[in-house]
Amino acid sequence: DSGVTQTPKHLITATGQRVTLRCSPRSGDLSVYWYQQSLDQGLQFLIQYYNGEERAKGNILERFSAQQFPDLHSELNLSSLELGDSALYFCASSVGFESYEQYFGPGTRLTVT
Amino acid sequence: AQKVTQAQTEISVVEKEDVTLDCVYETRDTTYYLFWYKQPPSGELVFLIRRNSFDEQNEISGRYSWNFQKSTSSFNFTITASQVVDSAVYFCALTYGRAGNMLTFGGGTRLMVKP
Predict the structure, then answer these.
(1) With an 8 Å Cβ cutoff, are A35 and B103 in contact?
(2) DSSP 3-state assignment of A83?
(3) Whole-number Å distance between alpha carbons of B86 and B104
(4) Strands B109-114, B10-14: parallel, antiparallel or unpaired by DSSP?
(5) Are B18 and B108 in contact (CB under 8 A)?
(6) What's the gap in Å between the CA of B107 and the closest CA on chain A?
(7) Which residue of B45, B48, B92 is the best one to mutate when testing the A interface, meaning the one whose CB has the most A CBs within 10 A?
């Protein structure tokens, strides 16, 4: 158990809908990251927050947004969902914002039908 | 551009065999960090090791060992006396100084250890 929690574990929704994925980092970690794992794209970095502020952005679609709250938990919002958004979404956390090992949560499996 | 290549998509071995998973990386930065993660069938990603670009010492942890060679831009992972529980997908990843901490992952190598 990495100490990073993600809810829900599974999510099934229809195209065009909006969902929110939630992540709580390990105790003491200030950085939160979101990654997407799909069969065709592999594991891709989406976005990083450090202590409430956005630090780095990867291949995140405009339909996706994230935030980190004062209690350091983070939410990833996915809107106008398409079939291609079906994937495993991971949250990870680390102590700092540079080069520390990242500990991953169990992931949220999103299925868009 | 940063890139991580794991040329072996799938490896199958019999229990107790040694197996090496290859990882080749590309980066223009002189300061970078390399990682290995394990993804067992249950799906979570488990951190195995982090190595910085200034530390070329090989590392051994139990049956696991890692060989970092800057001259060939490789960071290979060897499992000695493999066990069925080692069956998983293994990912090599890279991050570099200016990227904050975003990880660039290789495509992964699926290791199947048969009894």
Answers:
(1) yes
(2) helix
(3) 23
(4) parallel
(5) no
(6) 6
(7) B45
Q: Report the candidate in A34, A50, A49, A38 with the shortest Cα–Cα distance to residue A90.
A: A34
User: Measured between beta carbons, which residues in chain A are less than 8 angstroms from residue B46?
Assistant: 2, 104
- Token pair recorded at residue B4: 């991580």
| CA A81/CA B4 separation, integer angstroms | 29
**Is B100 in contact with A92 (Cβ distance < 8 A)?**
no
| pLDDT score for B56 | 85
For the residues of A4-43, what is the DSSP string, one character each? -EEE-SEEEE-TT--EEEEEEPPTT--EEEEEEEETTTEE
Paired tokens of A70: 């004062």
Nearest one of A86, A90, A85 to A107, comparing CA atoms: A90
Per-residue pLDDT tens digits for B47-101: 999 998 988 888 889 999 999 999 999 999 999 999 999 999 999 999 876 656 7
- Cα–Cα distance for residue pair B94/A62, rounded to 1 Å: 25
